[in-house]
Specification:
By secondary structure, this protein is of the alpha+beta class. It has 14 helices and 16 strands.
């Protein structure tokens, strides 16, 4: 404990205004003093809260002060939600492969008053609000639906310094590792001794809001599980084209996964999307799903903190899955490549402006950044290195992209034609619905070719044993 208490007078000398905030600052200072911090350190901590309060919403000592700082700093948001008469210009990669309805959605997003810049990737198809494959930069605003319902949906590739021939030699062992060490489905969870543990469950951010406190149990139950739809965990062969990760060029066994933040992210997205729509009741119905939250608002700061927590949870999810599946066959990874593709980041434009870049089904591709762009259950995926192209907002596609809706795929692709497609390519499918048939997706090589100026391909992953959620009738 330090004997030099911080008084209201001292706080005023350091620029703190009169009112409730100074009382909260004094209370926080007293608690920090009791913890043994010296006066200068306490004043520095308080100033950090005043400068950027958002991250302190998860701090049990400073959260109330942070909320009051946000309230006082809040600017009056313009009541006019009128769209621009014409959309801002934006580049499109692979236009000939993109449904006009997805381009129309992107046009609408470029009419938002908060939009600064945008780009459309070659895997683009229709989504809610922003198309999948859309990249949108906004001014001091975050759009929950432009991040996506599955916050921090992401990829992880683990490379093992052994030959992929093991998949043929011990096929049943590798199949069992996926059957026994993964869990798929909307309500999938682990119980008893199978329940996973990870340091992400000790993150202070779980206590930042009432909603996050209720979601911690969901996180505990679903850690190490995957969802439905296009989520997968699959064994395959990885061809590395150049020396990297301490590995020589050549072919290696690899494990690839695709999933996100599960029920945690879905509930965060639902709550804050509704709040955003309530704040913009006059917004044109064509873009109602693109309602935004100002980052000067308490709700905007809460969403940002929750989104970043969902990102850490999604990353932990993949780490647990890979650890369990690899351990079941006695392997230890030699290298890992991973990335989000449903997220928002604070980034700088070439003109120096700081913006919020939303990538909804798009892979970060800044100079030298590695990412994974998968194909389908029956087609190759690629590890890429970004070229940092500013026109694309340093982004690339997140996959092949759908060319059929789920309903169209179910009604037009037979199980026999899907299975024949997989058999010809030597792929064993465990689970999986017809809506995820390879024929429902664009040709991945055409999508990669359309963005050759955005990324360099450094490796190719070929699936061999694919685990997905079971057919709807079998769940």
């Amino acid at each position: 404990m330090n004997d030099e208490l911080i008084t209201g007078k001292i706080l005023k000398i350091h620029g703190w205004p009169d009112g409730r905030i100074i009382g909260l600052a004094k209370q926080a200072a007293a608690t920090l003093n009791d913890s043994g911090l010296d006066r200068e350190s306490i004043l520095a901590r308080l100033d950090a809260v005043r400068t950027e309060p958002g991250p302190f919403l998860a701090d049990s000592v400073l959260a109330d002060l942070a909320r009051e700082c946000i309230r006082l700093a809040k600017k009056d948001e313009p009541s006019d939600d009128a769209l621009r008469e014409r959309p801002l210009d934006y580049p499109i990669w692979g236009r000939e492969q993109i449904d006009p309805a997805a381009i129309a959605q992107m046009d609408n997003s470029m009419r938002l008053p908060v939009t600064v810049a945008g780009a459309l990737m070659p895997d683009a198809h229709v989504g809610y609000g922003l198309p999948i494959g859309g990249v949108l930069a906004t001014d001091n605003a975050v759009i929950p639906y432009a991040v996506g319902v599955d916050i921090a949906c992401r990829m992880r590739l683990s490379i093992y310094e052994v030959s992929p021939h093991l998949l043929g030699q011990k096929k049943s062992a590798f199949e069992n590792s996926l059957w026994e060490q993964t869990a798929f489905g909307m309500g999938a969870k682990w119980t008893g001794s199978k329940k996973a543990d990870h340091e992400v469950l000790d993150d202070n951010a779980w206590f930042a809001t009432a909603q996050l406190r209720t979601l911690k149990d969901t996180a505990m139950n679903q850690l190490g599980t995957s969802g439905t739809g296009n989520h997968f965990v699959e064994w395959g062969a990885f061809r590395l084209h150049e020396e990297m990760f301490g590995l020589a060029p050549g072919e290696y066994l690899a494990l690839l996964s695709h999933s996100g933040s599960r029920g945690v992210g879905a509930k965060i997205a639902d709550r804050y999307s509704r709040l955003a729509m309530e704040k913009h009741p006059e917004l044109d119905k064509a873009v109602r799903h693109l309602a935004w939250l100002s980052l000067d608002s308490e709700e905007g700061q809460e969403y940002w903190l929750a989104m970043e927590l969902a990102g850490r949870f999604a990353s932990a999810n993949h780490a647990i899955i890979h650890q369990r599946v690899a351990r079941a066959v006695g392997l230890r990874e030699a290298a890992v490549v991973e990335n989000h593709h449903n997220f928002a980041w604070r980034e700088q434009l070439p003109d120096g402006r700081t913006v919020i870049v939303h990538r909804k089904g798009a892979t970060p591709a800044s100079q030298g950044t590695l990412g994974v762009i998968p194909g389908s259950m029956g087609d190759a995926g690629y590890v890429v290195r970004g070229r940092g192209v500013s026109d694309s907002l340093e982004s690339a596609s997140h996959g092949a992209g759908r060319q059929m809706s789920r309903k169209t795929a179910i009604n037009s692709i037979s199980k026999s034609s899907r299975d024949e497609y997989l058999k010809e390519r030597g792929v064993t499918l465990l689970g999986g619905g017809l809506d995820e048939s390879p024929q429902a997706y664009k040709p991945i090589d055409s999508v990669i070719s359309a963005q050759h100026d955005l990324v360099d391909v450094i490796g190719k992953f070929t699936p061999r044993i694919v685990r997905m959620a079971d057919e709807p009738g079998d769940i």
